[in-house]
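User: Fold this; tokens only.

Assistant: Input:
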Amino acid sequence: MKFYLILIILISQELYGDIKVVWKNSFSNTFSTSAIAVTLTGLYVGTGEDGLVCLSATGAKQWNYSSVKEPIETAPLVLGDNIVFGSKNGNLYCINLKGKQKWVFNAVSDIDSSPASDGKVVVFGTKNGEIYCIDLASGDKKWVFITKGKISAAPLIVIDAAYCGSSDNNMYRINLEDGKQIWSFASGKPIYTTPLILNEFIFFGSDDYIFYALDAWSGQLKWKFQADSYLQSSPVTDGKLIYFGSYKGKVFALEPATGNKKWEYQGNGWIKGSPVLTNSSLVIGTYGGDLLQISPQDGKLIESFKIGEPLQGSPVALGDDVFLITDTGNVMCINIPGLSASWQMFRKDATRSGTL
């Protein structure tokens, strides 16, 4: 018996090196395009059949909100005692941290867009192309803005405006108070990414293979970068460079002022999820089943971890741990020594994956 135990440990070290799969929990019909919200109170995961599930730090199921009855393919948003998320049944839900319902808003159409919030209102999009603004406290509708294509990515809220891309090829800037359009910018094909704001410019990729930089206030084009394929990986930044992936498996790093390419890295399989930035590296998953740890400075590979299952969603990092969902519905916690994420995730609210 001792021989077999030692053998298992040796095989594990050979397969993973310094990486440790801390825990794994499986949920049926859960999509890797879903995402995990990580807070000090727990991990919140949208699933295919179990509704919204709360997991402990050890991966154990604490509770689940099962009234949804339809798949949750978007990232939940945690704001204080509120957890807000949408479902394929067309409902936007607000529950508390114990899984008790506060309110439900029916948008009729599938909700494929993760919600965004300024702490007072919640903004999200639907498959039918509506962009809704909902009062966070009451769940009442403030306004709805209609586009001609589905909304698949979370909006971006900056001060008094919401930025949102649509499959009608346009990026919109909408007044947060009354829902009126301030400007729109037409790309060549659908936009499935959440824009990033930096130094009064917004940055986003499109299915026309182009990564755009616009003046955030006027919508005027600053520069554009020609990539190699569809861009459905929302960008992130460390203030020095902008990082995103492509459908041909490349990770790009661009200079925000000029759009000049600093470096690129070729991964295994398409990249749809956003990278996560930590104190030491850039972490991103590929459809080929690799979790890549890349140097943000020069694009050199630090380590490639074979998860063995396709990864389409965005990982979330906290400390030396990375949380992710695979295409087969496995929720995993992976420890990468020295990662030191220190809450440097995707959004300023630091409660879920996505991009700001």
